[in-house]
Amino acid sequence: MTAATPRGPIPSDTERAAMRRALELAATPGPMPGPNPRVGCVLLAPDGAVLAEGFHRGAGTPHAEADALLRAHTAAGPDAARGATAVVTLEPCAHRGRTGPCAEALADAGVARVVFAQQDPNPDAAGGAAALRAAGVEVVGGLLATEARALNQAWSRAMELGRPVVTWKVATTLDGRTAAADGTSRWISSAAARRDAHRLRSSVDTVLVGTGTLLTDDPALTVRDADSAVARTAPGPLRAVMGLTEVPPSARVREPGPAGRDAGWVHLRTRDPLPALEELWARERRHVLLEGGPRLAAAFWRAGLVDEVVVYVAPVLLGSGPAAVGDLGIGTIGDAARLEVTDVTVIGAEPDGHTPAGETNVRLTLRPRTEG
Length: 372
What we know:
The protein has helices at residues 13-26, 64-76, 102-108, 128-134, 145-151, 153-161, 191-202, 211-217, 229-233, 273-282, 294-302; strands at 40-44, 50-55, 85-90, 113-118, 138-141, 165-172, 206-210, 238-242, 265-268, 287-290, 308-313, 339-347, 361-368. The strands form 2 sheets. An 8-stranded mixed β-sheet has the order 9-8-7-10-6-11-13-12, with helices on both faces. The model is unreliable at 1-5 (pLDDT under 50). The protein is α/β, with parallel strands linked by helices and 372 residues long. The relative contact order is 0.12.
């Protein structure tokens, strides 16, 4: 049985349609990313009519189920959900964190049936389905599970790994250089590629560089030029600097980020990637964008802690200068690190296909190949 196969009584067409609506609600632009997943919920009356809808808006706010129940109770009284079916994109949680257990809230509200998509991969929150069944609620799991997981791909993977997912982002010339021999690097990538990179920053909760990059480039690590309303309203990522060298008082990373969206910055005083990720995990960080130099990238790669690679390739040749990544300990072609390409996108092309000279880059998205 696959993860996408419903487990339990077969969902109705009405419940399937409600799940697609719940997925739309979960994807509603809001104050994400964060430590929690995107979740949507639709409450159906016994006759299939929609009682209420809800979705999660970020850490500390009501979960999708609680949001939908509140709307139903506000509109039709405390018994509004009795005998109802709750259609949810993620297995209702069974733990008490900033908010109470959703499984308990649904059972207490008199919900008779729960249909969920993705099983909760968070070991601290899982178990809601069992708790609901123990309370006499009929439960069906796995409806549109693949679509639900795709909505929270990084969060789901982080829960399974027990550490933040790491995406390594780098901009290079066609011959793999990140700067010229004299150290100049502005700008290898085009303006369109830089805007796209800021969009990528807006989709993670942490941007990480090493102290070497900090001292050389003095980056701000904020989201500034992304072409999307979500990027302009979502919380900015935590700006993290890793290494033993002190961060200068004048460093731009110390400056406040955009008003109302500043997640602050942190100095991770280690050269070891794993303790750095452990500290970020303790800070409820789930997706790290690695923007450091070649030595930091090599350290993460050698430790097996790179989960995705995003490369902006410019149609530029330098012939010399710093390489995209440092020594990986590879001495022969048979040991080469080979990656799987998952996406190729031309950045900067005009709608008519015209590609202005110097304004077009190729964005490659890759993932490390796993044995077997």
